[in-house]
Amino acid sequence: MPNTVPEGTLDEMAAYYRARATEYDEWFYRQGRYDRGAEANARWLAEAEMVFAALDHLTLTGEVLELAPGTGIWTERLARTARSVTAVDASAEMIAINRAKVASAKVTYLQADLFTWRPDRTYDAVVFGFWISHVPRERLPVFLAMVAAALRPGGAVFFVDGRREPTSTAAGDQLPEADSQVMTRRLNDGRSFQIVKNFYHPATLEGYCAAAGLEVVVRETPTYFQFGSGSRKA
Ligand SMILES: C[S@@+](CC[C@H](N)C(=O)[O-])C[C@H]1O[C@@H](n2cnc3c(N)ncnc32)[C@H](O)[C@@H]1O
Fold first, then answer.
1. CATH code at position 82
2. Ligand 1, atom 7: nearest CA belongs to which residue?
3. Nearest to 227, CA basis, from 78, 65, 50, 71
4. Does the reported pTM lie above 0.85?
5. pLDDT, averaged across the chain
6. How many angstroms separate the CA atoms of 10 and 173, rounded?
7. Are 90 and 15 in contact (CB under 8 A)?
8. What's the 41 CA to ligand 1 centre distance in angstroms?
9. 47-69 confidence digits (pLDDT tens)
């Protein structure tokens, strides 16, 4: 298949996030290299609130699986209503920050590679923030099949990711070319890594979800975000 992602890029992406853990939140809170000026920052934060509202509206009260939870931006919200959250991330550094920030006995952490990890039970909901864009396109059907396998029939799925908008990433970082799945990301100390980054039309993502047995509607905020919400077919 042309334009597939080499295995080594997945390892490099995992290494990038391990190294970025302590500076990760600068991106979401628009600080440092991610500060794109007052107007763009305000727009980002307002649109993030729209996505938070969509998630909060679901009121996920049962047993939730969160994939690639990172520093806990979404974990913290999930733990407000869920009976339990199982959070699976490859990075011990991310997990340590998440555990310290969220500080909830409801959350159980698993350190695992999502390209090989498989659930051994089902959950009431599966949530993943800013992860689907990092799954190589050729692996998306297998990833979404894993999500479906992790859900009880009728269980909820919610995900969020970025739209293709240059000011979403750090100043100086270039988004991938339209025909590429790979981009270069830099850390504050200048080290650079190749990572996977994909952007999808909402209908394309809905189609991938439907093929995996997930009935999902994908919506977009005006500039920055795309989020999918739905359930496993009963
Ligand atoms: C863009 S961050 C998203 C974090 C969080 N969900 C959020 O929205 O802020 C991607 C996360 O995926 C994790 N990750 C990268 N490669 C992984 C892999 N192969 N398996 C599991 N987690 C991985 C990183 O450690 C990081 O926490």
1. 3.40.50.150
2. 129
3. 50
4. yes
5. 96
6. 19
7. no
8. 23
9. 999 999 999 999 999 999 999 99
